[in-house]
Amino acid sequence: MSSEGFPDPDPGTTARSAAGNDPFAPLGVTWTPVSPRLVTARRLVLGVVALVPLLAVVVVALLTGWPWLLLLLVPLLGLVGWLFWLIGRQVRAIGYAEREDDLLIRSGVMFKTMVVVPYGRMQYVDVEAGPIDRAFGVARVQLHTASPGTDAAIPGLVPEEAARLRERLASRGEARLAGL
Amino acid sequence: MTESFPPPDRPPASAPRSLSSFPPPQGEAVGLPAPEADGRWHRLHPVTPVIRGWKVLAVLLVVLVQQRSDDLFRGGGLPGGVELLITAGALLLGALLGAVWAWLSWRMTRYQVAQDAVHLHQGVLFRQQRQARLDRLQAVDVVQPLLARLLGLSELKLEVAGGAGSEVRLAYLRDAEARRLRNTLLARAAGLKYETEEAPEAPEQQVLSVPTDRLVLSLLLSGATLWGAVIAVALIVAVVVVGEPGLIVGLAPVLIGTVGATWGQFTRGFAFRLAQSPDGLRLRHGLLETRSQTVPPGRVQAVRLQQPLLWRRVDWWRVEINVAGYGFSQTNQNVESVLLPVGTRQDAMTALSLVLPELGVDDARHVVDQGLSGATAAGGFTCAPRRSVWVDPVAWRRNGFRVTPRALLTRSGRITRELAVVPHERAQSLALTQGPLQRKLGLASFEVHSTPGPVSPAARHLDAPTAAALLDEQAHRARVARSTAGPEQWMSTRTSAGDHEIPVHRAQPGDLPREP
User: Burial letters for B77-89: b for 16+ Cβ neighbours within 10 Å, e otherwise?
Assistant: First the structure.
């Protein structure tokens, strides 16, 4: 039996994290939030997308002369308003933490996710920024492992922080590189 | 065209460049160690374009037959003399063009086996130069499609961890060449120092085989066959009731699809044999197209044991694996990922033990038993709490996990039972997820991300603090396990762990099992 070096999977010793009620807030982890500029960028995109149905309703109401069609605007505006509010919460929910051997990323308000990516498992790191992202000065860092299931992306980083994170992940990954 | 072709790093007096000097005269090759692996550039077997070109002709014939049969049905009768001539001419032209193209493509394909990598250059218009590092080798397959098999040729596939389509395919080589090359590559990838001229073939020991009657019965007991039968019966009833035989035409494609899929599973699983060797697992199977796979130790990323509902009475199981090079697609039948198409519980456990010799617990059999068919905390399983019935009313009792010093076992599924096993050091990343309903109930799901393949291990709807603790511990265990894991070159030793012994195997005529 070559079980030396492995921690004993005794359920009694497992209460290291999750002392609180929230499983997404392990003890001793300081989360770094992403830039609030991501909120503005995402809200702008939402605004542009929402403009299409809103305008369509107005135009159809004007052309047909049925003013009661404008009532449709109420649920539409309600939905847009809710999404507007949700974006703020979603962005505030995104956080990452660099631990000694792995990177933690959490996200989601309704559907929460927390991913642990060991540095030694990273195959490559992408830094991406679309035109709107660039206008607001944010970038997105995506980590790739050998598994397509790894959904580890940090959107809304300030470009300097994105570059720093990329360099740091690359150097840490090299130091801990393992085979598959 | 040929001017730019052999790359500049190619040694001057090397591989034959003209057709007339290939294959090399037998006299030269005698006595040289593994002539394919001498570090020079080689071409594939000259019959390759014929086998490839045959496919073009077959496609043309199929198209033609379809066109003609339409005409025949419409009462057009047999085509006249001129038309026949034109058709024959077109066919001939198509076949000729196909042959020329296949020959060109053969001319442009060369491979080189260096000490630590295999290089493959190919492509007529779009050139491709591919290099596969041997220390990243995930599996080596020898595939023999029917026609190639009749001609004594094989295709050698080197899988590296780039997912589907990343492999280096050497098609076609002579059978003996392909085997010799496979042995050389495996020996080099293993870091094996051999004293003989040729790399020895690792001795293998057959562990499991699937009898044909069991395979047939297992396919008859599968969901696809059941649906096929239901459709067929419905069809017959409909035809009798309505009195309109034309209905058959409407549903025929579904039936043909079902029968085709089942037939495919039968031919792929036919004569399935699983053997063990120092080079890793050896899998042999196939009726028309035969396949001989070698998966070196430590290349299996995750294992799944699965039992469809209809197999429960006979207690049969199917075992599938994730191997980084094999990749995975939902539509494609993943031939390569099957470790055992059907076997008894004992067979499945044997297969699992080949992949993961030690779970690190004394009562491994009991633990696996509970994972396969248990639904309680027996065997050390941590179960999903009773309140998870609200999110998973059918299978909630089965959801659970067991951590051993070596691996994580997750069980799930009540209709189709499943047990997934991941060695700690093979987890790529881990995740914890929670939906709104789960949050209300204080539940969370735990996932392990493995390389692409049929297995995606997860323990769903656990008690939230338990899931969080599991995430934290698994991250720690994976880290410890990685640092003590065996070397990539499975027969070389790490300087830190000197307790391994380098097996030096000398080929002896007696110890090689006969290949069919």
Answer: eeeeeeeeeeeee
- Exposed/middle/buried for B497, CB within 10 Å: 0-12, 13-18, 19+? exposed
* Residue among B317, B425, B310 nearest B371 (CA): B317
Query: Which neighbouring-strand residues pair with B338?
Result: B320
Name which of B465, B461, B463 is nearest B447 in CA terms: B461
Give the span between the Cα atoms of A112 and B444, in whole angstroms.
Answer: 9
Residue numbers of B between 447 and 486 with CB closer than 8 Å to A: 447, 449-452, 456, 464-473, 475-482, 484-485
Q: Does A3 touch chain B (CB under 8 A)?
A: yes
Question: What are the tens digits of pLDDT across the range A138-151?
Answer: 999 999 988 888 88
**Beta strand segments in B217-266, E:** none
Strand partners, B192: none
Q: B249-290, pLDDT tens digit by residue?
A: 767 777 788 888 888 889 999 999 999 998 889 999 999 999
Closest Cβ opposite residue A114 in set B432, B442, B479:
B432
Q: Strand B429-434 and strand A112-118: pairing?
A: antiparallel
**CB within 8 Å of B318: residues ≥ 6 apart:** B305, B306, B307, B308, B311, B338, B340, B341, B342, B343, B348
Cα separation, B284 vs B209, whole angstroms: 9
Rounded Cα distance between B295 and B138, Å, is 7
Q: Which of B429, B439, B473 sits opposite A118 (nearest CB)?
A: B429
What is the residue-averaged pLDDT of chain A?
A: 85
Query: Per the CB < 8 Å rule, is B477 touching A7?
Result: yes
**DSSP states of A45-72:** HHHHHHHHHHHHHHHHHHHHT-GGGGGG
A116 touching B (Cβ < 8 Å): yes
Is A114 part of the contact surface with chain B (CB cutoff 8 Å)? yes
- Longest Cα pair distance anywhere in chain B, in angstroms? 82
ipTM reported for the complex, 2 dp = 0.83
Could you tell me which of B74, B164, B233, B248 has the C-alpha nearest to residue B454?
B164
Contacts of B299 in chain A (CB under 8 A): 180
Q: Does A102 touch chain B (CB under 8 A)?
A: yes
- Considering only CB atoms, B429 lies closest to which of A1, A150, A179, namely A150
Hey, what amino acid is at B356?
Answer: L
Tell me the sheet residues that pair with B276: B205, B281
**Is the Cβ pair A1, B358 closer than 8 Å?**
yes
Q: What is the mean pLDDT of each run of 10 residues along chain B (516 residues)?
A: 37 36 37 64 88 76 74 60 81 84 89 89 89 88 91 91 78 90 89 71 89 93 80 81 74 78 89 92 93 91 94 94 80 78 95 90 92 92 94 94 95 94 93 95 95 92 94 92 78 46 37 36
Contact check, Cβ <8 Å, B469/A14: yes
Q: Which of B456, B465, B488 sits opposite A179 (nearest CB)?
A: B488
Q: Which amino acid is at B13?
A: A
pLDDT at B276: 92
Pinpoint the alpha helices (H) of B388-430.
Answer: none
Residue in B with minimal Cα distance to A116: B430
Q: Please give the Cα distance from B326 to B452 (Å, whole number).
A: 8
